[in-house]
Structures are given as structure tokens and as C-alpha cells.
Amino acid sequence: AVNSSWIKEAQSGSSTPCEHAGGSAGSFKEHVPQFRGHDWQLHYRIYGNHFGNPIQQTNASNPLRVAMFSATSCAFSYDISFPTTFYDFELLDREFSELYRTTEALFPWDSKLDVAYFRGSCWFYKSHGRTAAMTMSKVAKDLVDAEWYDEIRTDMLEKDGIPQFGDIQEAARYKYLLHLEGHDFWSMRIRSLAHIRSLLLKQQLPCEEFYYGFFQPYLHYLPIKRDLSDLFEAVLWARQNDDIARNISDALVRVARSVLSKRSVLQYVHMAIVRYSKLLRYKVKLHPKARPIDPSSRCLKTVLPCFDE
């Protein structure tokens, strides 16, 4: 039977916060800090710092407080999320707008398949939410359609215009889209999924990017437990409450088109740097090798190492 509390929570917008992240994150132990003498760090870490790189620790025996900026902030670290993984940033608004318009034209709501859909790579295949989804797909294909990519592309990091997540437009064929963790307790896939008018089923994760706080459970998406144990129930609930599911998906698209625009991302970057710079306790000195940034430099339009002549 479908839990009736889903309907009540969805209609009221209330939700119960996840009390325990679970999985490998639940037993994560922080490393000893290494940036002594610094007030803050602006550190380009594309996928966070959770593969053995030092994490800042703050406790009674170590009062050091250092603001470490990385891709995500996590329940088990003190990092501040900083937009480090926006590939093709100059094309951001256009690509998201095209994704929305195209999928709206090709796959209107009533034509979509009422199945939870996911396609992705097989990171941590032995103990991963994606593996659970694929297994559930084998058990109940009428509820979940989850498979691995046939081919994993990495050249999207080197060239513009190559999709990061396969043909993301194909996901719009489905009413329910799964957002599952990647290989570092999070996934940037939600940026694209949020521009498709399908109901987002979002796995509860310990790490998040800066904009996640704008997406509220039961208002913009349906939360799914870390182990996906309530996934079948969520799909059945969505089928029985099609109008509510559609309203939730509409709300997500509206907020995503605002908070994930180029302007919003740049505003966040400016706000984060300015606010934390005010915490500095010493006079800032220009490094002798520092060079001014040319806004027209080609180096600002690539994620590869680049040096102006």
C-alpha cells in the first residue's frame, strides 16, 4: 500500500530532514588540517576533497577556522561550495533554455512514460545508489528503468558543445527522473534534470552544491532514501497523484531557470568572495608574480591549463 503521508507532505510542503547520511559518508573521518596561518583558502577542487585530500577540522583542541572553497559542502566537512564545475559556462543560459524548449515540444507531460529513469556510469558499482537502481530495474521494469552508459565520454572536459550526461533530452520521455550520487557523494546532473518538466526523485546525499538549498523537498522534488528503499513507493505515489507530481515538476523548473542562470552563479561567486574577504585579519599584499586578469582572455573560456602570450 502507498503511504498516505506522501500526499499530506507533498500538499503541505513539509518534510522530515534526513537524520543520518548513511553509506560510506556516515563513517568518514576528517584529516588533520594543513593550512595553518591562513585565514581562508580559495582552492579549485573540481570534485570536492573526499579522496584523501586534507579537510579542515574545527574543534576544541584545534580552534583554527579556515574557509575552504570547493565544489561541494558536505555534512562531514567545513567546505564552502564554490562553482568550479560549470563547463561551457558562456553557453549556460542558451543550453538550459534549449533543453527546456526542446523537451517541452517533444515530450509533453501526458505523453511521458510513468517510470523512474536513470542512465549513468558505474562508479563504485558494489556499494552505490546507482547499483541499487539498476537492480531494482531488473526486478520491476514497469517501475524503474536504470542502466549504465554504453560509452563513457571524457572529452566534454576538453571541448565545448559535447553533452556531459549522454543525450539528456531522452530523459524527458519519462515522468520521473532519478538524481543519484556520482563518484564523490553528489552529482551535478541535477542542473540539467531541473530544466526538464518531469518529477525529480532525488536521493538524499551528504554533499551539495551552493544552489541545492533553493530546491525544497515536496515542493520541487520528492526525496528518496540513500539506499533507495522507498523508490518503488515513490513511483506508485506519483502515479496516484499525477496533478501534484506535475505541479512539483513545474515548480522545480521555475526556480532552476532563476538560480542556475549565469547571472545568479556570478552573483553567488561575488557574494562569497566579498563576504569572506571581510574576515581577513591582516593587510592584503599583492603577490610579486600576480598578473591582472584580462576579461577578454581566451584562458577564461577553457578548463584546460592556459597561458596568454
Automatic annotation (TrEMBL):
SMART domains: CAP10. InterPro entries: CAP10, O-Glucosyltr/Glycosyltrsf_90. Residues 31-283 form the Glycosyl transferase CAP10 domain. The keyword Manganese does not apply. Residues 1-17 have a biased composition (Polar residues). Residues 1-26 are annotated as: Disordered. Pfam families: Glyco_transf_90. Keywords: Transferase. GO terms for molecular function: transferase activity. Belongs to the glycosyltransferase 90 family. This is Glycosyl transferase CAP10 domain-containing protein. The lineage of its organism: Eukaryota, Cryptophyceae, Pyrenomonadales, Geminigeraceae, Hanusia.
